Every structure is written in C-alpha cells, then in structure tokens.
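Give me structure tokens for this 329-residue protein.
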Amino acid sequence: MTTIFEQYVNLADEKIGAQAIYATDDFFADKSRLISSAQPVFKEDLYDDNGKWMDGWESRRKRGEGYDYCIVRLGFAGTIKGLDIDTLFFTGNYPPSASVDACYSPDGDPTEATEWQEILPSQSLQGDSQHEHTVDNEQVFTHVRLNIYPDGGVARLRVYGLPSVDWEKTAADVEVDLAALENGGRALACSDEHFGKKANILRPGRGENMGDGWETARRRTPGNDWVIVALGHPGTVNKVAVDTAHFKGNFPDSCYIQAAYVQGGTDDQVATQSLFWRELLPSQKLAADSIHEFSDQVNDIGPITHVRLNIFPDGGISRLRLFGFKQQA
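Here you go.
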C-alpha cells in the first residue's frame, strides 16, 4: 500500500512503542488494532462473541448524542506532517466523517485538563479507502485523538512525521546511531520493497521476523538493489552494522555503502545524485541470519548526511546501524 508520506516516520506505529490508550467504545474491534503495523486483513468467516471480527477499531452503533474517539500515545514525540485514516474493508460500518486533535504531554498521558489542538478539521470519509491529508504545523506533539462522527470503524490511523530530537543534549564525544528512527533517521528511497518496507531497517531492536525488515523481489535483470537513508543529524560514521536476522535463503551476497554531505535540494533528488557519492564502506560479504559489524573497514570521509546501502544482487536485511558522532555546529 503506497502513501504520499513514505519519506516520513509513522509515529503511531506499535513497533516503535505507540499505544492506543483510550477509546470511548471498542465493542466490535479493539482499539489496539488501529495502530497495528501490519496491513489490514479481512477474514470472511471469523466472528467473536460481539459479532463480526474486523481488523481495526470499531465502536458499536451510537443511539444517543455525541461521538466516539480514540487517543493514541505516539511512539516518539515529534512534528506531524501527514495523516492517513484508512477504512480498508470497512464498507457499511465506516464513520461518515472524522477529525484529528493533538497535544503535547511529555510527562504523562492526557487528563481532562489537557489542551488539545485540532490538526485536521472534520473530513468526509469513504468506505474501504485511504484518506491522506497533509498537516501544516511545526509544533511537537506526543498524543493524537481520532474523532469519528458519530461511530463506526477505522482500520488504521497512521501519523506521519519526524521524531523530535534535542541534539543539544548529545555531547560531541558520545557515539550514537545516527540513522536510528529515534534519532530522526529516515529511509528516503529504494530500488524495490516487494516483501518488506525500507523504513523497517531503522527501527529499534532486532527484527522479529523477515517481515520486519527490508526485502526486495528476486532480481532477474543485471544490476543491484539499494536503499537511501538520511541521517538524523550530520556526523561522522566510524562503525557500521548490517543485520540479516531471519534472512537465511534470501540474504544478499554482499553489500557496500556510499555516502555524501548533501546540501540543498529535496528528498526526491537524492536517488540520482547518489550514484556519484563517495565510498564509506567497501564491498563486504554477508552471511545468513547474522549481525555484521565493520569498523576498520569504514573509510574516513568526514561528516555526512546521507548514505546509500547497495546490496548484491538482491535480498533482505533486517537492520542498518550507522554509529558515529554528531557534527559540531
């Protein structure tokens, strides 16, 4: 499923710690499914004690005044660039409209005294559809509230944005993973992501399975696959880790990494430019289901902002780590 916000992080992804913490009602479908990282599915003959099983959040039919809502604690505090209210497989039971509010509550979950800000006014919804909307707001938020009018079901809520990182608190001599999602790293582009999404390689921890990584289709033409990552902060990289966890008969034969300090331009332009970037890590053989750490092999090319991981000829990796030090102002 494609999205116009692929270059941002889904801050409402359960895999990075997001939680649906409260819903006015989730009689038909539990609120936790609203932020599942898996694509929604439809199970035709599956019923539970309350009725038809649906992959999303669904409230009962409202017979009085008011409307239903669900509050989600984001995995990372951050700025919100876009929203996707997905009603996939909800046809006769989707809400006619919805809106989204957000708040900043870093010290705990919202209370009745919390001030909410509307970031998406009421929008009409259709069944079995994605509804993507841009958000023009530079504030940092920790929670969002999806309001549905008056009731019904939503398969997924995706909140695309950028994690908020206070780099002033990171000393220049502290080694960090400059590409980690929690440090603002982003997967911008790739040659192919048939089996697994490129953004997965920057997630916290090791992959849970092959689906929790980036995997390309089997290449039947000359060439190789690649993915481009923007670091969370410019810096120097002195250690690289490439993890092929769970990839056993489909790991790449080898990899190498190019890098550059990119100034100006847009994210859409980097793919073409990356062909001419300098070599950060020369070609290295890879093995199945292993963490490969490289330090002596990493070239000292100074501060960088972007890397291009090239895999040969195709296959899957679970995680990419780029350890180093932030560039001083």
